[in-house]
Amino acid sequence: MNSRFVPGADVEPSLLRRIPTAAIVTASYAPDFERCRLLCETLDLHVSGAAHHYILVEHRDIQLFRQLENGRRSVVDERELLPRWLHAFDDPLSLFRRRVWLSLKTQPLRGWHVQQLRRIAISAHAGEDVLIFCDSDVAFLKPFDCGAFWRDGKARLFRRDGVLADEGHDEHRIWSRNAGAALGIDPSRTSVHDYISTLIAWRRDTVLAMCGEIEKVHARGWVEVVGSARKFSECMIYGRYVDDLLEGAGHFHGSEEFCRVHWTGEALSDDEFRRFVAGMAPEQVAIGMQSFIGTDIGRIRRLIGLN
Fold first, then answer.
1. What's the confidence (pLDDT) of residue 95?
2. Is the pLDDT of residue 148 over 60?
3. Which Pfam families does the record cross-reference, listed alphabetically (predicted)?
4. pTM, whole model, 2 decimals?
């Protein structure tokens, strides 16, 4: 075992004596607002064991998303989370249809990059012990208790073992290598595990320790380090930090995915959608329809019985 200080892994006995608090975290943006509204409705209907739901958005989207706030849900402005030197602009290269985040300290970043940075940064803003990440294009269809992410003082780390050793997964391998570089892991220590999914959990104290480790290794802020490579995955960084540097301390592994996601392809017909839902594994409690596929949100509402 290494000698690193691991907040909350083995050195915080209070978490062994009490039930940890949990929060659900969703990073979103204006084009996904109606999908996020559906997530909120189904989350309130089916999910227990979460003390709060944080929705992380760009500053200009704050007022739109404030409609979703209630006593257990708040919208967090990225200006509260990320350095002020990271500025968002309409991108002329996309005829101003997309946004780009620019600074002198990072590569030009797109929305999906900054959403990942927000997910890491919320650890310094939230007070709950466990952060559960759920995309805004997810809808819960079955009851779910967030206690599934905690066992005997340890948090569940999603990991698909060995998949990066198979053919394909080229982009995931790049993300894994860049995660290792951000964490200061010797490049010869490659990883074959995949940590990417939705509806997964991190320990908040471990995220804080991870950010501290990145800053210690590079003598720069963690946002600057992570944002210096345009190909990165926050899930890979966290997974490699836990497994490669902490040797799994404070975590147990699980490979079952709680959400069934339609990642690519065309929008499903009504019958295809019903078959997709019928094909959910017993442990799956939610579905995800990737927003860029273009499935009509009204049709999803009708098919899951919320109209």
1. 81
2. yes
3. DUF6492 (PF20102)
4. 0.92
